[in-house]
């Protein structure tokens, strides 16, 4: 192990007495490993911070400014990049996800607690603030009307949703309707783990749309195609992205309508589909 120091992490290739692995393997260079190998450090932009049998070093995480992040600690061959939030952003997950600080309404609110790196802005109502009741009631009615319209629209479309089998082409279309800033939140809601999301982001750091696609693709592989589309639409609605759900349904369902025999759907079937979509 010429050039390797005891306890350092390197690439090793050669014959070993441990379980055989074809090609390059990653071991901690120790005398107890009993391996004959030529050790090479990870290249710039890659790292490994623990013993494992991966065929290559891991790619360093990129702190993206459009995600509200900046680099706190640069990547080395033994430690990944550490990100922190930009000004006017905060994180409750040690920089894994940065969110934009809320702004208080200058007319009705005042700042009780300014935004910090770990906590959002806290607003409170101004004392003796006089607000025209119409300014509150009218927007509420407008919002309720919009929600009623969306629900009615989905009621018309709902009987088709269960029959849609998601394909890779569908996932590409869906990604175009989703704002990149919610990729992480969507992945967590779909059951993806934090390390998995970080690896996807690192692998496709130069193409943010590919990040969204592979988050959906890995979820679809785990979930299975049966019932995937209603489950995905329901997830968007639970997260509050009703318009996004509506746009996705609008784009996917018209392509399916001509192939669906709606006469085969009885009342109980419609009820089950309605429960899944709404």
From TrEMBL:
Keywords: Apoptosis, Disulfide bond, Glycoprotein, Membrane, Repeat, Signal, Transmembrane, Transmembrane helix. SUPFAM superfamilies: DEATH domain, TNF receptor-like. The keyword Transmembrane applies. GO terms for cellular component: CD95 death-inducing signaling complex; external side of plasma membrane; membrane raft. The chain crosses the membrane at residues 134-156. The keyword Glycoprotein applies. Residues 41-83, 84-123 form the TNFR-Cys domain. TNFR-Cys repeats lie at residues 41-83, 84-123. Pfam families: Death (PF00531), TNFR_c6 (PF00020). One of its GO terms (biological process) is extrinsic apoptotic signaling pathway in absence of ligand. The lineage of its organism: Eukaryota, Metazoa, Chordata, Craniata, Vertebrata. Residues 183-252 form the Death domain. One of its GO terms (molecular function) is tumor necrosis factor receptor activity. InterPro entries: DEATH-like_dom_sf (IPR011029), Death_dom (IPR000488), TNFR/NGFR_Cys_rich_reg (IPR001368). This is Uncharacterized protein. Disulfide bonds join 42-57. It comes from Chiloscyllium punctatum.
């Amino acid at each position: 192990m010429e050039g390797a120091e005891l306890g350092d992490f390197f690439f090793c290739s050669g014959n070993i007495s441990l379980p055989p692995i074809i090609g390059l393997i990653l071991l901690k260079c120790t005398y107890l490993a009993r391996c004959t190998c030529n050790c090479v450090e990870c290249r710039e932009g890659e790292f490994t911070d623990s013993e494992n049998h991966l065929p290559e070093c891991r790619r360093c995480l990129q702190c993206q400014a459009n995600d509200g992040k900046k680099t706190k600690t640069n990547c080395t061959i033994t430690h990944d990049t550490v990100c922190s939030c930009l000004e006017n952003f905060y994180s409750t997950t040690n920089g894994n996800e940065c969110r934009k600080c809320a702004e208080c309404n200058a007319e009705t609110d005042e700042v009780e607690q300014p935004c910090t790196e770990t906590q959002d802005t806290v607003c409170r109502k101004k004392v003796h603030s006089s607000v025209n009741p119409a300014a509150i009631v009218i927007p509420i009615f407008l919002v309720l009307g919009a929600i009623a319209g969306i629900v009615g629209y989905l009621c018309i479309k709902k009987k088709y949703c269960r029959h849609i089998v998601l394909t890779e082409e569908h996932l590409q279309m869906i990604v175009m309707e989703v704002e990149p800033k919610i990729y992480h939140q969507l992945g967590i809601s779909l059951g993806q783990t934090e390390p998995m999301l970080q690896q996807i982001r690192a692998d496709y750091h130069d193409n943010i749309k590919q990040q969204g696609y592979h988050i959906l693709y890995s979820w679809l592989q785990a979930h299975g195609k049966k019932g995937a589309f209603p489950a995905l639409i329901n997830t968007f609605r639970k997260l509050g992205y009703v318009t996004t759900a509506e746009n996705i349904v609008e784009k996917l369902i018209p392509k399916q309508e001509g192939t669906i025999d709606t006469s085969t759907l009885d009342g109980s079937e419609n009820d089950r589909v309605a429960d899944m979509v709404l």
